[in-house]
Structure prediction request, 200 residues.
Amino acid sequence: MLTIVQKENPVLRAIAKEIPIQEITSAHIKRVIRDMKKMLKTQPDGVAIAAPQIGESVRIFVVSGKIFEESWQKELVLPEGTAVQTPDLTFINPRILKLSKTKKWMHEGCLSVRPLWGEVERSTNATVEAYDETGKKFTRGAGGLLAHIFQHETDHLDGVLFIDHARNVAPGQVPEQAAAPKKSREPKSPVKKSTIKTKK
Ligand SMILES: [Zn+2]
Prediction:
């Protein structure tokens, strides 16, 4: 059965495999991408997913098209039955080409680390090079949420979870403010991993 694996699962700690270019359009990779999109759609608060999160240790992540919708940007949740106009974006063998020196502490959660949230210092702008579903190489620059997603998802492909470098990790919802004020790097969160419990 298709599920989102949780943080104890070793697949989340493996370095995901690069996909040979000629295999990008293979039935197997097509199925993985289809399953990732299907799974992402079942998560109302999910904005992106990496292949290891469905148990597939390959270098792919998918960003939900809904983040580009005006209605979602206003409410951060879409009313039931809303049709999303923007297709999901698929990044195969992504490589971060550039990260801005400007960083911000951003609130962050993860479909595989429920129900925890924390603050992670992320670059405000990022550029990624990747292949699309047809095997074509492209480059995409982003700021704001999409830049944040690029960093969280490429971490997944390298076996890194946000709790590895987050502070103030605690269960719950996203606090009101989008991001904490910019500060110099601070020590890691004092929360011990052994005390962290997941809900799902
Ligand atoms: Zn995640």
About this structure: Residues 175-200 have pLDDT under 50 and may be disordered. The chain has three helices and nine strands. Strands lie at 48-50, 60-63, 89-99, 103-109, 116-123, 125-131, 137-143, 166-171, 179-180. Residues 34 and 187 are 39 Å apart (CA to CA).
